[in-house]
Structures are given as C-alpha cells and as structure tokens.
Write a structure and sequence with these properties.
alpha/beta, 18% strand
Length: 312
C-alpha cells in the first residue's frame, strides 16, 4: 500500500507543470464564480436599497442614481475579470506562451548561426587552430628561455646500464649504496622533477627536497608534492632553484634532454633486461667533463662509473 502511494507521488517535471497549471485555472474559475455571485447579490441589494427603500435616492451622478453608476463600475470590473480568466487565458495562455518562446528561441538560433557564419568567413577555424598552436608553442619556448636564464644548471641525474637500462617494473635491477649516497648528496636542498611512476616507487617523500610530479592525469594528487602536467610547467616552478634535478623515469628524461645543461650519469657496467631506458647521449651536443670509476666490492655487485656531461 505504501509503495503504491509512493509511486503515485513520483511525478515527472512535465506532469507537475501541467498539474500546477490546472490547479491555478481552477482557482481562477472559482474566484470568477464567487465574484459573479457577489456581483448579482450585491446588485440586487443596492437596487432594493436605492429604489425600493429610497436610500441615497437624492444622490445623482451624471443624471443617474448612484446605484446605477456603482453597478456600471462593478460590471466593468466583472467583465475585466471574466476576460482575464476566459479570453486572455484561452488566446494567450500556456500554449501561446510556449509557442512564443519556441519562436523566439528559433529566431535567436538563426541569428547566432548568421553570426557564426560571419566569424567563420573572417576567421577560418583551421587558421584559428594554427594560431592557437603557434601561441602555445611560443609561450612554452618563452618559459624555457626564462628558466634557462634563471636556472644556470638544470641537471638530469640517473643510473643506467651499458644498454641504457634504467629499471624494470618500476624498480631498479641493481643495488649500489654509494650511488644512493651520491644521489642524496647532490639533490638534497633542491627541486626534484619526476614522473608519477617514479614518485610512486618511493616508500615516502625524500627529505629536504621539493617534489614536482609530471603527470597527464588532471585529477592526480599526492600529499607533500607539487603536481604539474608538462616539463615546462615543472621548470617554471623550479626556476628559483640554482640547480633543479630531473630524476626520471624514461619519458621524463627524454623530455628533459633538450632543456638540461648537465647530466650526472652513473654508468653501471652490465647489460640488463629492462622496460625503461635512458635516452642516448649525443656526443655532438654533450661533452664528457668528468668520470670516476668504482669497482666491485662486498656492497657493490657491479662496477660502475660516475660520468658528468655538460652541454657544449
């Protein structure tokens, strides 16, 4: 019983509008009928007072008794009320209002279409797209140039195998404690720029460093880190740092290669199976300025060399 009653109360908006319109019409007609009854009874009462009992018989306006003038005024109001309820509602009711609204909307759409046609003629869509792309590229290059002026040493730091392997399944495939110490010593106190997967490989935030994460995911959030969506945006945020570091992974290194001034690379002297790789270093662009070899020992399974490259 309750469910049936509940279903009966679930009225869609269109039905609700129809119901509300019908309710208002019923109230209007009811008031008109009440007005008519009062008008008839009041008219008879005034005529009896004026003509039968002579009440106010000496009061004459424009050659007629006051009761006649009062009835004429009252009749005018009654006719006005009648027209409002029947004539205006019939010829200018909800249906007429809806038709007028649709007509105006159609007219506005036609005018908008004409304006759009004029805009397309003056500013072709492909031309606007081309100009927008040029503007975006121009702004990006301006940001990079500004960053290069304020940041004398944008540095990429990485450890890679002989085949440029960086790691597999978002993890390193070697354990080099001295390289970890060197990474900590170089990056502490600086901005570190990385991809989302690299950040998620950390057990926690690295202390005394500003974490900047580049991701395509507009909804991504990471407590204690700054989220950006391009390498240019990351460098803009880090422009106050004298030496921000790009720390991976493979895609971020590839993006950072053209923006960097220095590469601190730990070359692990072994080839590894991997799914992320460091980009090739073009010796026409980069000059090897320093190298330091580290042999195997009880803590280091693989030999490696610290390589410092500077852009020519």
């Amino acid at each position: 019983m309750f469910s049936k009653r509940k279903e009966s109360l679930q009225i869609d908006p269109q039905q609700r509008d129809l119901y509300e319109h019908a309710r208002k019409r019923i109230i209007q007609k009811k008031r008109l009928f009440q007005h008519f009854v009062i008008f008839v009874v009041g008219s008879i009462f005034m005529i009896i007072l004026n003509l039968v009992f002579g009440f106010g018989k000496e009061i004459i306006f424009f050659g007629a008794y006051w009761s006649v003038i009062a009835l004429i005024c009252w009749a005018f109001l009654f006719v006005l009320h009648f027209c409002n309820v029947w004539l205006f509602s019939t010829f200018m009711g909800q249906e007429w209002t809806d038709q007028e609204m649709e007509r105006l909307i159609a007219k506005q759409k036609e005018e908008i279409a004409l304006i759009q046609k004029d805009i397309d003629l003056m500013y072709p869509k492909q031309e606007l797209i081309r100009k927008k792309e040029q503007f975006i590229k121009g702004k990006a290059s301006e940001i990079v140039e500004e960053v290069k002026k304020t940041n004398p040493m944008i540095t990429m730091i990485a450890a890679a195998g002989e085949n440029n392997a960086l790691g597999k399944d978002n993890d390193l495939v070697w354990h080099l404690p001295d390289d970890f110490k060197r990474f900590k010593q170089l990056t502490t106190g600086h901005h570190i720029i990385m991809g989302r997967k690299t950040f998620e490989s950390f057990p926690k935030l690295l202390p005394n460093r500003v974490h900047i994460i580049i991701t395509r995911n507009k909804e991504y959030q990471a407590e204690g880190a700054i989220i950006v969506h391009s390498i240019e945006e990351a460098l803009q945020i880090a422009k106050s740092d004298t030496q921000p570091f790009i720390i991976g992974g493979g895609e971020i290194y590839a993006m950072g290669m053209e923006h960097s001034h220095c590469i601190e690379l730990t070359r692990v002297h072994e080839e590894f199976e991997a799914d992320a790789f460091f980009p090739e270093i073009d010796t026409k662009v980069w000059k090897l300025e320093q190298e330091e070899f580290h042999d195997t020992d009880d803590k280091h399974k693989y030999p490696f060399t610290y390589l410092t490259y500077k852009r020519k």
